[in-house]
Write a structure and sequence with these properties.
With 268 residues, the chain is α/β, with parallel strands linked by helices. The protein folds into 2 domains: 6-219, P-loop containing nucleotide triphosphate hydrolases (Rossmann fold, 3-Layer(aba) Sandwich), CATH 3.40.50.300; 220-268. It is built from 9 helices and 9 strands. The termini are far apart. The structure holds adenosine-5'-triphosphate. This is ABC transporter ATP-binding protein. One of its GO terms (molecular function) is ATP hydrolysis activity. Keywords: ATP-binding, Lipoprotein, Nucleotide-binding, Transport.
Length: 268
Amino acid sequence: MEIIESITIKGGIDKKGMPELLQEITVTRGEIIGIVGPTGSGKSQLISDIEQIAQKDTSTQRKILINEKVPGEAERNDPRKKMVAQLSQNMNFFADMAVFDFLSLHARCRNKTGVDIDEIIFLANQLTGEPIHKTDNLTILSGGQTRALMVADVAVISSSPIVLIDEIENAGIKKHRALELLSGQGKIILVVTHDPVLALSSDKRIIMQCGGMRDLIESTSQEKLVAQQLNRIDHEILALREKVRQGKMIEYIETELLGSCFNSACYL
Ligand SMILES: Nc1ncnc2c1ncn2[C@@H]1O[C@H](COP(=O)(O)OP(=O)(O)OP(=O)(O)O)[C@@H](O)[C@H]1O
């Protein structure tokens, strides 16, 4: 398969039939692009246009180019050439098999020889507070474990160069680390989010309004700093959530951490 260096979204029309204010955006390998905007502003529709590699054949009339060219029929429709992987917090595994067996089977299906399955489970365990064991059955995994395993699976086994993520904020995983893991594999990542940790961690964010792409904002270094601080708070909440789930009592909270975050945020 040709290496995908970039995807280009050519703007179409918004919900009122007016041309989109942002008429073109190109995303390159390793870049993380956030998609933000109020409810109903067209975030999921944009993801859907990319997933379908729309060619002015959806309600938005957008056109998606791959490596600056119109992709052929095979690229759009052949499941073996699947260019786009999608992750959302509602996805679940339905196969009744052990984690190790599933990952081995998926690697074989994707013709990935020499993949270290234990390494994938290790990566997934970096994203979730509850350890995943290779003998665990997929159907007994919690929501957080499921999403963590999907991210590691997409990062290492799936050869799809474009990853679309639709609202994983409540997935119960280390979201920031998940993005790092995916972008580190040279994938193009577009993430729909209402969550400032994810929005400010992205390189740029598309602002949606009334079904159209309104603007493209590049994250500033100050915003990246805020994202790091929010990320630390996020990890703290994840750890607390885990303790509560395990029936433990909470004796203290890292107030110093939270205090320093809020204080330095005041300077901005
Ligand atoms: N440019 C457009 N032209 C026509 N219909 C559109 C356009 N953009 C979005 N829509 C439609 O508007 C509705 C809301 O869009 P969408 O679900 O993408 O919003 P959203 O921002 O993801 O909302 P939420 O945050 O609630 O998930 C959908 O039915 C979608 O198909």
